[in-house]
Amino acid sequence: MPQTYAPQQMVVPAAPVQVPIVQAPIVQAPIVAATDDDEPVYRVGSVLPANVPLYAIPQNVALSVPATRPYSYAWLGGRAYVVDPATSVVVADVTE
Question: Could you give the C-alpha distances from 89 to 3, 17, 60, in angstroms and in order?
């Protein structure tokens, strides 16, 4: 069973009604996602390991939801996370 890291702080880059706008392009991105079942599940506020690659938020998302512009995203353990690139802190789990 995957380990779960507890949140340190709740930070959401989009209003709840905007989550599908952020979620769809990220979860459909043509990036090979790690799908290791033993990979921990990270919660909002958790810090991702330094070796996790971060990707730019898709331009159409940044234009539709300007609050996402300063963030990146990561695929880890089959989950999509919106991440603060300066701190590697998870600000949202946008996995479907």
Answer: 17, 22, 23
- The beta strand positions in the chain, using DSSP E, are 4-5, 41-42, 55-56, 72-76, 79-84, 89-93
Residues 49-69 have pLDDT tens digits of: 999 999 998 888 888 888 888
CB atoms within 10 A of CB 2: 13
As beta bridge partners, residue 85 has none
Q: pTM score > 0.70 for this model?
A: no
Q: How many CB atoms lie within 10 A of CB 46?
A: 20
End-to-end CA distance of the chain: 20
Query: Which residues, in sequence order, are CB contacts of 85 under 8 Å at separation 6+?
Result: 54, 70, 71, 72
